[in-house]
Specification:
heterodimer; A: mainly beta; four-stranded antiparallel beta sheet; 3 helices; globular; B: mainly alpha; 0% strand
Chain lengths: 443, 169
């Protein structure tokens, strides 16, 4: 005689047979690609020190074995300490930054002055308490050297910082995401907002989007600070409370007291934002992508949105692509003036003149843009390149960047020094933080 | 442990082959939809294979993957109201196989499952298909073991009623 539990057990087994997988069972190519992309950023391994030695010499080797503890935040020096070596106009210098783990990369940059530059990113350290091995990385340039600076603990789960922006030596923002709990299987997606007040980094609460019960699925990837009471952050809302099964754009604003969610448009089957730049408080640009289809089969389309002081609206970018949807996920934006905005992704750089978009030939794969003026634009990615108003010139690097290196962020100090930071490839899927500085002035 | 030096794609294929069927079936029971189940398994696989440092220890991979499928399916639940209405509509149409008593029970359970609350459904599937202990289920669903006991009991009761009305037993 079988019990009712057995009946249920048997029925469940029968029902499960509805979905017998067809032979042969193989990893779908897109799944394999997604796995590889993740692994390339997570897997730990051996250091190919030769590459770093070749690139950074003794300093490079020292950076590798740098076991100095992080600088306590209260010992971060900002002006007036004079730089040890004066910057020679137009001269490039490079540094390997402290990177204590197998893979550390910098993705965000906030140049405040020639003696005060912040870079943020992610350490992959494989600690057992951080199963994905991701922890925030904050580094500071004081005019002499780069040092890791302690950030606030986000708890036992993974955390990362993606972008940074600041208005002064006591007002710097960094955004990213973190996992509130230790679970090796979920993404690091609750929004993380950190602020530097001149004395320490602290976590500032991120707002819960209206109607949401949870943050799980929210991440921030871009930030721009215009004033101590005016900053914007963008990212994605892929929570289950967002009213859709696909990601939605997310825009948050800081008014000097708190962050609030500001409505932003969505198109197609899903949308997200990645980067942000501002001309003024009433002229802000955000970039990202929309998706047609979402999940395993989706096509991305460039998405550009604009804040006019009242509302965010979509600025169609099709005009640069024969009126057709422009494929790709826009990585970066820089706003030179009201009618001069540049956006870039993959091998596309597109410029807005207030009326139409023009497709400029990209010097390479550009992940970051910054501009000092319409005839002085810097693009960084797998190259570092300069726009002089007529054409792009790739900055020759000697020694050249090792394979697998990328500049992820580029910025300019008020004095005109250009900084680019990123990850120096030294083995498949492994990067070490590095920075390039070009001192202001003609070469 | 000897480091597995096969290319990543070979190891991925093996892990996928080993777990795909089981995970698909579990995800299907949890979600009630093949398409959702397929999406859940792909997503879980990407998350676990993409972050699991020790791919060469496949014994530990399975439990992580299972846990991920369950967690992801819990997220899915909140969207399931619409789908449940659809399943109910479908279930009302008598199918030809419904004359076979075993199939009739199975279909009654299918319909009964779709009427359970997501947590009851998860508790029933994890208990009687996943063979998880009450303690493991409690951990998975984020509740006390006592709650699992009552979720299972109420779920079973609801299924029993469903079967009674369908099969006339």
């Amino acid at each position: 005689v079988s019990t009712f539990s057995d009946v249920v057990r048997e029925a469940l087994r029968g029902l499960a047979e509805d979905v017998e997988p067809a032979d042969p069972i193989r990893v779908p190519p897109l799944t394999a690609r997604r796995v590889r992309r993740r692994r390339a950023r997570v897997v730990a391994g051996l250091v190919a020190a030769v590459v770093l030695l070749g690139y950074g010499g003794i300093a490079g080797a020292r950076a590798l074995v740098d076991s100095r503890p992080p600088v306590p935040a209260d010992r971060v020096t900002t002006p007036p300490s004079p730089p040890a070596v004066a910057c020679q106009p137009g001269v490039l210098s490079r540094s390997l930054l402290p990177g204590p783990d197998d893979e550390d990369i910098l993705t965000g940059l906030a140049p405040i002055s020639d003696q005060d530059v912040w870079a943020v990113g992610t350490r992959f350290n494989g600690q057992s308490s951080h199963p994905g091995g991701q922890l925030t990385l904050i580094e500071h340039w004081d005019g002499r050297s780069w040092r890791i600076v302690e950030g606030p603990s986000t708890g036992p789960g993974n955390s990362r910082l993606v972008a940074a922006s600041g208005t002064s030596s006591d007002d710097v923002w960094a955004v990213g995401g973190f996992e509130p709990t230790v679970d090796p299987t979920t993404g690091p997606e609750a929004p993380l907002i950190e602020h530097w007040d001149g004395g320490r980094w602290s976590i500032v609460p991120a707002p819960l989007p209206p109607g949401h019960q949870s943050h799980s699925g929210v991440g921030l990837t871009g930030v721009v600070a215009l004033a101590p009471d005016d900053a914007w952050a963008v990212g994605f809302d892929d929570t289950l409370d967002n009213g859709s099964t696909t990601p939605r754009t997310l825009v948050e604003h800081w008014n000097g007291r708190s962050w609030t969610v500001v409505p932003s448009p969505n198109v197609d089957d899903g949308s997200l934002l990645q980067g942000i730049a501002a001309v003024s408080a009433t002229d802000v640009w955000a970039v990202g992508a929309s998706y047609v289809g979402y999940g395993e089969v989706s096509r991305s389309r460039a998405l550009v949105e604009h804040w006019d002081g009242i509302a965010w609206t979509i600025v169609p970018v099709q005009s640069a692509h024969g009126g057709q949807p422009f494929p790709g996920v826009v990585e970066t934006v820089t706003a030179i003036g009201p009618n001069d905005v540049w956006v870039a992704w993959a091998r596309s750089i597109v410029r807005w003149n207030g009326t139409t978009w023009t497709d400029l030939t990209a010097p390479g794969r550009v992940l970051a843009l910054t501009a000092l003026g319409p005839r002085d634009v810097w693009g960084a990615g797998d190259v570092l390149a300069h726009w002089d108003g007529r054409e792009w010139t790739t900055v020759p690097l000697d020694p050249g960047l090792p394979k697998g290196s990328t500049f992820n962020a580029v910025g300019v100090t008020p004095a005109g020094d250009v900084w680019a930071v990123g990850g120096l490839g030294y083995a498949a899927g492994h990067q070490h933080p590095f920075a390039l500085r070009r001192c202001a002035g003609p070469s | 442990v000897e480091r597995d030096r096969r290319p990543l794609s070979g190891r991925l294929d093996e892990l996928y082959r080993r777990h795909y069927g089981d995970m698909l079936r579990l995800a299907y029971l949890l979600s009630g939809s093949r398409a959702t189940a397929e999406d859940l398994v792909q997503e879980a696989f990407v998350r676990v294979a993409g972050r699991f440092v020790e791919l060469r220890n496949p014994d530990a991979f399975g439990p992580y993957l299972k846990r991920t499928v369950i967690n992801l399916s819990r997220k899915q639940f909140r969207h399931r109201r619409v789908e449940r209405a659809y399943v109910e509509r479908q279930a009302r149409q008598p199918s030809p196989e419904a004359r076979d008593p075993d199939v009739a029970v199975q279909e009654a359970i299918r319909e009964g499952l779709s009427r359970l609350t997501p947590r009851q459904r998860a508790a029933i599937v994890l208990r009687f298909y996943g063979d998880l202990s009450e303690r493991d289920i409690a951990e998975t669903l984020g509740c006390r073991p006592g709650t699992v006991k009552s979720l299972v009991a109420r779920g079973l009761e609801a299924l029993r009623t469903e079967i009674g009305s369908e099969v006339g037993a």
